[in-house]
Design a protein that fits this description.
Elements lengths: L1 H18 L12 H11 L3 H12 L8 H13 L3 H14 L4 H13 L3 H11 L5 H11 L2
Helix pairs in contact: 2-3, 3-4, 4-5, 4-6, 5-6, 6-7, 6-8, 7-8
Length: 144
């Protein structure tokens, strides 16, 4: 009986540890075409990147990936579609409110659309991250 109780107890502990999810990675792997889109963005081929990213976002599995939404918004912004870009930055931030890239780029969009006060609020959110997104947004605001 003792052996049964010990086995039951150990099994119970292992189930609790597993259900906590600390060792399980729930992130979805990016499709190969995502790397292509990033290369196109780096080459400033934004319309081509938008096409690739739209195909990715048409797949339900990627519609809630904040990285993909952020890069899509960035390409839109660089193409001059500021309103649509803002929508997608906000979608990324709805999924991951701490997404540094989306915060930085949304702050830059606010500067570009004469809403510097909103950009400063975003800068305050990034202040303690000790990250390049903070310093880049600060420089963008200071140089505007």
């Amino acid at each position: 009986m003792k052996t049964f109780l010990i086995i039951f107890f150990l099994l119970f502990l292992s189930l609790n540890a597993y259900s906590a999810g600390s060792d399980i990675d729930n992130t979805i792997a990016k499709p190969k075409s995502y790397k292509n889109a990033l290369k196109l963005i780096k080459k400033e081929q934004y319309s081509e990147a938008i096409t690739v990213l739209e195909k990715i976002l048409n797949q339900k599995i990627y519609k809630k990936d904040p990285d993909i939404l952020n890069e899509y918004a960035f390409a839109l912004r660089q193409s001059g579609n500021l309103s649509k870009a803002e929508t997608f930055y906000n979608q990324a931030l709805k999924i991951d409110p701490e997404h540094k890239g989306a915060l930085e780029y949304l702050g830059e969009l606010y500067v570009d659309t004469n809403r510097k006060n909103k950009a400063v609020l975003i800068l305050k959110k990034l202040k303690n991250c000790k990250c390049e997104e903070y310093s880049e947004l600060k420089a963008y605001i200071d140089n505007s």
